[in-house]
Amino acid sequence: MRRFSFFLTLGLIPCILFGRPQVIQESPGPLSQAHSFLEGAQNCNRCHTPDHKNQENKCLTCHSEIADRISQNSGYHKDKAKDCTSCHLEHQSLNWKLTGMDITEFDHDETGYPLKFSHSNIKDCFSCHRQEISLPREKSPSFLMGHSGCKTCHPSPHPGRQENCRICHTARSWRFDIWNRRGGL
Predict the structure, then answer these.
(1) Is the model's pLDDT at 153 over the cut of 60?
(2) How far is CA 183 from CA 26, 51, 174, 178, in A?
(3) Considering the chain, what percentage of its residues have pLDDT values greater than 70?
(4) What pTM was computed for the model?
(5) What pLDDT is recorded for position 84?
(6) Torsions phi, psi of 93, nearest 5?
(7) Which residue has the higher pLDDT, 31 or 132?
(8) How many CB atoms lie within 10 A of CB 163?
């Protein structure tokens, strides 16, 4: 018993003097370009919790524009706050595409802006989600629009006369408008 106490005391001395032993974790792989500024063991806790639970809160701390939409119950992520990593998998490679989205399978209805009528013919996401009208992002393109509405993409043919296009026009056709349906002025 004395021998055990001696070794126990001997083992505890470094812990008492230097604190509890530090667990050194190795990165499972390089971060994507978008998160590469977080590379290094000293930054692990900026994204990960010690128990690897509730990490989504850490994602939403940096991605506040998505957190805002979730809190407003709007946009694509409105019901996806529980597990960011199911779609956005990190530690794959520097050139890894974090969205991992198959555009041909993407259901735009989930954004709250279904692509109907003439908008359903759009095949190139970036024809609408242009950098100058999307929320700013430094290292990757953003699909989050800064504003929504007709004039985000379509210049008004009659500026100053009407601010709300949908009073007269529908998404079915810009040429067919409510004035024509009512028989004109």
Answers:
(1) yes
(2) 72, 67, 16, 9
(3) 78
(4) 0.67
(5) 86
(6) 180, 165
(7) 31
(8) 10
